[in-house]
Specification:
Helix content: 55-70%
Radius of gyration: 31 Å
Strand order of the largest sheet: 1-2-3-4-6-5
Largest sheet: 6 strands, antiparallel
CATH architecture of one domain: Orthogonal Bundle
Distance between the termini: 70 Å
Structural class: mainly alpha
Number of strands: 11
Shape: globular
CATH superfamily of one domain: Transferase(Phosphotransferase) domain 1
Number of helices: 37
CATH class of one domain: Mainly Alpha
Amino acid sequence: MGDLRWEKVEQIVDEILDLPAEQRQAYIEKTCGHDQNLKSEVTQLIESIFDSEGWLTDLNEYKHEFYNDVSEGLESLSTNQDFVGRQVGSYTIKKKIGQGGMGLVYLADRSDDNFDHQVAIKIIREGQATEANIQRFRREQRILAGLKHPGIAQLYDGGVTAEGAPYIIMEYVCGVPLTEYCRTHNSSIKERIDLFKQVLQAVRYAHENLVIHRDLKPDNILVDESGKVKILDFGISKLLQDEDDIALTQTGSRILTPKYAAPEQIKQTKITTATDLYSLGIIFYELLSNKPPFYLDDCTTYQAEQIILKQAPTRPSTKVSDSKIKKRIQGDLDAITLKAIRKESEHRYRMANEFLEDLKNYQKGIPVTAHEDSFRYRSQKFFKRHKQGIAVAAGVLLFLIGLTGFYTWQIAQERNQAKLQAQRAERQATRAEQVSKFMIDLFDSNLPERTSGEDIPVSTVIDAGIANLNKQQLSPVNRATILGVIAQVQVKLSEIESARQLSSQAFVLITDSVENHNINTVDIPTIYGQIAYQAGNFEKALRAFQTGDSLFKVNNLTNTYEYRTLKYNLVNLYTEQKDYQEALKILDKLDPGTFGDDREAIIEKSDYFNYKAITLKNLGKQKEALPIYKKALKYRLEAYGANNPEVGTIYHNIGNVYISLGQYNKALKYSNRAYEIRNNTLGPNHNLTASTLWGLSIINRNLGNFDQALKYAQEAGAILKESFGADHWKYAYTIRGQAEVLIKMKEFLKAQKKADIAIEIINNNYPSNVTFKAHFNATYTNIYKGLEDLDKAAEYYSKSIVFLRRGLGDKHPQLGEMLISYAKMEMGRNNYKKAYPLLEETLEIKKHNEQSDEELQAIKKLLDECANKLKPTSTISAN
């Protein structure tokens, strides 16, 4: 599966996990539509999540049963229980070394004489044996067991003591907190950054394995004597999928350290990976300045929370007295730190790798993505803030200035035109006045002095605004403009159903209106279409995008970022439905020369060319895709620098094109570079690194380097097995790859054993994925051809072709390749009658996908050969 495909599967799964259980299957059916391949991938991933974490399927039942199992033992615990000197498992507890919100931590030694081994044992703290805490404690066991990284303290074992107290046995880390280590060692800025990069790498690994820590602080990040970082205590971690677990989010049950808590933790709203990155930003602030951004020591809990939610942090450089250090921190390091601790989670770093990449770029002296607040950022704040006051008033003012400024400019322009335009200008002035008055009245009624100083959530303001809007006498387009703005806010607040209703109303209003439109109204169909697309209603989404396209054109707004966003949505839609020709037509009509020259425009150009190359590759036009990919590479290098995962992805894609073209030496060059970048930036055990190793295996197989090809396939398999499990399709593909190498080595029976293992994984875990079955059955055709059992090979060719038709349709390039391979085998055993219709269909597929004349001529040549062999021989009678 390509990177874009995998992102699509992940997006759908994330949305499904937010739904009640009874709605999930229906959502899968709607979202995946007729794409059986996508439906299978989504279903399998959902099943694997629930199979591996059984407590998710029925959390209440699981908690009830587990609590019953241990509650009797817990009741017998003394209130002054001391475990020192007691034996737990194979270990004897020596002393208490710490305690947390719910657990006591002890140092213990191995009890036998086989070897010396010290561990840390965490036992549930007396008085905390509630049902919720027991569940949380057991979760720590499950989460830690799945995390194997040198920067994360390892879980060894777990169980329940004789008294019924749950415990876990963990790696004992002899170290000091990160900030203390840097102070006592008088570490330089470079040394502090290098240590912090170790932290980011460990957190990145946890996030990639769908785990959020949620309580990152110096006490949980230790540095040992060798200078290596270890992160401790995932006791309140939360699997990313488990967003509905009320036990960890309900009022009064928060477990966090306020000094390092993100605003969304204080407000008890949705926790994401950006929450961990906020905590890391606070820690990084302390590493740079030796002082926290906020002083909370003498504050009450309420006062501390208000400071975290409202007070803007100063730059870390302002808290440093040493002029040399201050100068080092000023600029990029200030910007990186402040970006990490922004109040709004969507404006922080969303992934640890983004934070890590900016630090690497800083150290290399190249630009970082963090920057001071832009006008766009400041103006968006008023949509997202949950407090009223001067900041909101300023946000509204910015909105109004922009809105009225646009209309003022338009009015001035129109007044300079012919007299016949006067009425139109007057309408625009009325629109500006109406919309401005509505927004002013809305927020003026919610200022602190009018609400007794109460904090008013944005959702409350929006509800009031909708109620007020229904009372207003507004033109249809004005009403649509306001509804569209509110719908966008609701999408960002994850209030999707409300956003759908409002955007639907706005969509109807603008399509029925004959008024002139501006960028705010013509963008409404895009909003409506995106929401319909996410819900799997492709017909509604298509109608909305097409309507929006017409509005952009009629109002001469096609040379805008918003218009291109609409077009990319259409490309997504057509690609999802495998209508690559339509997707390509859209991309061909866009002109990247009009995008601009700033960094954002450069990134957009790189994405545009990558998108176009992917579409061409899907059409089987590998040669045309190649130069397009290279344009994407040029812009990504310009935007991100040479050693960035985004750049690595393009190198990887180019390598794959050369593989398809059979140009394996060139493929080797690009794939080696992709591996180098991914290995350095993502790590040797990342699944994308494994993906490139897999490509290198294919390349070396075709270059005749069979031992190297087998080694790469095995290495890729080991990483993917560790990342996704032994039942995952990606791991199965590496087993199939090993079989293909063994076929090249003429080890056909060994290859068959590998193929049997691979196909068993697919049949057991992906029974409905016909595309997978097509690929894996194709391996058997090569095995049986090698064993010279051509009847058996023909049987597997037929199976693969049936599966490809069902999975990819009758015109897909992969079907054409399978047909021609089958035809050539039949020609090889003089079965021209069987080969001829296979070649005829291949030719039609090649024409449909607009293959080169060279390829078409090659098929016609084979058809002519078959036709000549099938001509009846004539006899001449002698008279």
